[in-house]
Amino acid sequence: MIIHMSRTAAAEDQARIYDKITAAGFQYEVIHGATGINVIGILGDLSRVPESYFRELAGVDKVVRISKAYKLVSREYSAKSKVIDLGGGVSVGAKELAFMAGPCSLESVEQMMTIGAYVSSMGIKIIRGGAYKPRTSPYSFQGMGLEGLKLLAEVRKKFGLKIVTEATGLHHHIDEAGNKEQRNVLENVIDYADIIQIGARNMKSYGFLQELGILTKDCKKPILLKRGDSSTLKDFLLAAEYIVANGNPNVILCLRGIRTFEEEKFQRYTPDIGAITVLKRESNLPVIFDPSHAVGYRASVPGAALAAVAAGADGLLIETHNDPPNAMCDGEQSVTEEQLRDIKRKADVIWNLFW
Ligand code: PEP
Ligand code: MN
To answer: In ligand 1, which atom is closest to the CA atom of 202?
Structure first.
């Protein structure tokens, strides 16, 4: 539910409304509308609270009940698009295309220093890389774990890059030698990441999403939430709502392709480019696109990446590797340094042309 204050509302009127909201057991946030008039968003399940409970109060212009199943992430709740500020002049959802690139998985110091150097030389400000990998097979490489997070922190320091890395759950990572980390994966990732990635496989782990919202309530570290490969856009927005409703409003929506009947030798998923427009219209959150997982093959990545920018994506998340044929994870879809440089150059041209 949203309360629009009238132009003539006094500070005391507003304070009285805050008291009434808290007395009813709800939390609120102040949203400044495009008009500059204060708009107050009430958080929580308001299905049993009539609009009249607030409408009669002094200073109130109108009370609007959000009709959509997803509330806080909706355009109805905030007409203003959310900008996620990462500090140091880097943001997602602002005037600049948010370009994130790096390997699927962290493998070694040498690999990350090589990739960190070429990524930063292109003017890219955010590097990706998984320390914890959600693998379909238990026999596949599970990631470097905490050691990988420490390596990312070194890359951040050396090249001045922000880091996005995935938290796969609340479990304790066990390495190939059977050693178990002391703290759970999410707690470790919260400590090291600038953006916490939640993968397609976990988009429907509702308990995890709740815990994520609660554990990042104070630090409010941005969460990059990927669309589940078989999830509807409504499911996707409700998954984002789980995080926001539990305390962290800084969510970035990431499309990454959906299940396809196409043969895997041609395409891994179907790029959901059309969904960019839908999400931008339905939600106030930034929307980025991952062409690498969407198409699954290096040759098709540039086209999908550029189409997403033309369609209005706020950013891209791209897999790149210094030695793709020998990558430990997703090598076939990882672009080379040269390809990445070309995508970056063209994406900037398209961005400047359209947005
Ligand atoms: C990844 O980004 O490497 C990844 C595992 O992506 P997704 O969750 O979209 O499969
Ligand atoms: Mn990957």
So the answer is: 8
- Using alpha carbons, list the distances in angstroms from residue 158 to 118, 122, 132, 153, 335: 13, 15, 22, 9, 23
Ligand 1 mean position, distance from CA 43 (Å): 31
CA distance 134 to 141: 9
In the predicted model, is pLDDT for residue 34 greater than 60? no
> 50, exposed or middle or buried, with CB in 10 Å at 0-12, 13-18, 19+?
exposed
Chain segment 190-199, per-residue pLDDT in tens: 999 999 999 9
Average of pLDDT values for 320-336? 97
The torsion region of residue 17 among left (phi > 0), alpha (psi -120 to 50) and beta comes to alpha
- pLDDT given at position 135: 86
Give the residue whose CA is nearest to atom 4 of ligand 1.
199
pLDDT band at 33 (very low <50, low <70, confident <90, very high): low
CATH code, 84-354: 3.20.20.70
The model's pLDDT over 100-148, given as tens digits with 9 standing for 90+, comes to: 999 999 999 999 999 999 999 999 999 999 999 988 888 888 999 999 9
**Distance of CA 256 from the midpoint of ligand 2 (Å):** 10
Q: Which atom of ligand 1 is nearest to the CA of 330?
A: 3
Q: Where are the domains of the chain?
A: 2-64, 84-354
Largest CA distance in the chain: 67
User: Which residue's CA is the nearest one to ligand 1's atom 5?
Assistant: 199
Q: What rounded mean pLDDT belongs to the chain?
A: 95
pLDDT average, residue stretch 151-169: 98
Mutate to test the pocket of ligand 1, among 197, 224, 321 (most ligand atoms within 8 A of CB): 197
Pair 169, 205: CB distance under 8 Å: yes
Closest ligand 1 atom, CA of 197? 2
Ligand nearest to the CA of 268: 1
Ligand 1 pocket test: pick from 141, 208, 290 the residue with the most ligand atoms within 8 Å of its Cβ.
290
Give pTM, 2 decimals: 0.94
Class of domain 2-64: alpha beta
Q: Which ligand is nearest to the CA of 290?
A: 1
